[in-house]
Amino acid sequence: GAVVSQHPSRVICKSGTSVKIECRSLDFQATTMFWYRQFPKKSLMLMATSNEGSKATYEQGVEKDKFLINHASLTLSTLTVTSAHPEDSSFYICSARAPSGRGETQYFGPGTRLLVL
Amino acid sequence: QKEVEQDPGPLSVPEGAIVSLNCTYSNSAFQYFMWYRQYSRKGPELLMYTYSSGNKEDGRFTAQVDKSSKYISLFIRDSQPSDSATYLCAMTRNTGTASKLTFGTGTRLQVTL
Question: How far apart are CA B113 and CA B104, in angstroms?
Fold first, then answer.
């Protein structure tokens, strides 16, 4: 099946610093990737849709200057949490739209746990 | 009213039981339906996807879609302790370039020995 990786798997940082999370599609090209946030025992909350070569589309209520998304290639999207604060601590998960012929499914990365002190 | 309703559980069953997980939805525009399994502190793993009414089987898993009733199910036969996880239903309208998924809240399943 389609494999999506994320790096790092967990990160601890000080308040005010910026953190970059990478999402890679390992065995397929992904023109569209998605970034989600998940709180404990809650479902996934879509933050933004990342399209290769164009600006990301953010969901309502998500600050685009806070959560910078770059989709520079067909296999890599990055999410940068700028000037992180403790309330940004969460589980961040990316997904990539399935290759053609596999329906409108998404394959998810393993997630990145961010803790801001 | 949420677009997708899913009982959060928890659902506890003995090993070997048949598990039935369900979601209902309100928007008839949804065309593609998926089931994901998520272990604690991990990303969701795609189990099944389907786009037509009826049944689709894959090993111990059967996905069922009833578009007329706006109701989807996932059946797990011969459940194992390793099936203990949260199961998320998801669906999409097939909007072409931006196929956003709409998720259910997830059902937490516990299979006991």
Answer: 28
Query: Between A and B, how many residue pairs show a Cβ–Cβ distance under 8 A?
Result: 60
Could you give the residue ranges of the DSSP H alpha helices within B2-108?
none
Burial-class residue A68 by CB neighbours within 10 Å (0-12, 13-18, 19+): middle
Both tokens of residue B59? 């090993």
Report the distance separating Cα A89 and Cα B42, nearest Å.
16
Q: Identify the band that residue B1 occupies on the pLDDT scale cut at 50, 70 and 90.
A: confident
Among A32, A46, A104, the residue with its CB nearest the CB of B32 is A104
For A40, residues 6+ apart whose C-beta sits below 8 A from its C-beta are A91
* Residue B72 CB neighbours (<10 A): 28
| Number of other residues whose CB lies within 10 A of the CB of residue A49 | 20
Per-residue pLDDT reduced to its tens digit, B13-66: 999 999 999 999 999 989 899 999 999 989 999 999 988 899 999 999 999 999
| Residues of A in Cβ contact (< 8 Å) with B9 | none
3-state secondary structure of A60: coil
